[in-house]
Design a protein that fits this description.
The protein has two helices and six strands. The chain is an alpha+beta fold. The longest helix has 21 residues.
């Protein structure tokens, strides 16, 4: 059974004021490229996530991963989000994604490169 708690991320100016959420997942390690089904009711979020929205996942072994909402399933009692796990993030990169501080062009470029490397790994492994 997947157990999780959630802390809400703050808006990051560089993403146009869109919140990046932190979802803490208590489970065995999360592999890159894996997909997780996450019930909205277990997140504690006050708002729903949108298809294509970026989030940060924190596993119980302390690793941060970029993730994207790639699916939404609506059940009578809940909404189920399918998250595609992306590149592993350092704690500093995760903190920057969750921060409301605007990134300068160099730091934003680092985030883009990390995401691109994650996409390339998915294509190679997929």
């Amino acid at each position: 059974m997947l157990e999780m708690t959630v802390r809400r991320g703050e808006p990051r100016s560089v993403t146009g004021g869109v919140c990046v959420e932190l979802i803490e997942v208590v489970r065995p390690g999360t592999a890159h490229g894996e997909q997780l089904d996450v019930p909205h009711s277990s997140t504690g979020l006050s708002r729903g996530l949108d298809h294509g929205e970026q989030v940060v996942v924190l596993t119980d072994d302390g690793e941060y991963h970029a993730a994207e909402v790639v699916g939404l399933d609506f059940e009578p009692e809940d909404t189920i989000y399918t998250l595609r796990i992306g590149a592993r993030l350092t704690p500093e990169l995760a903190a920057e994604r969750l921060s409301d501080v605007a990134l300068d062009a160099d730091r934003d470029g680092v985030h883009r490169v990390v995401d691109l490397l994650g996409e390339l790994r998915d294509r190679r492994d997929g």
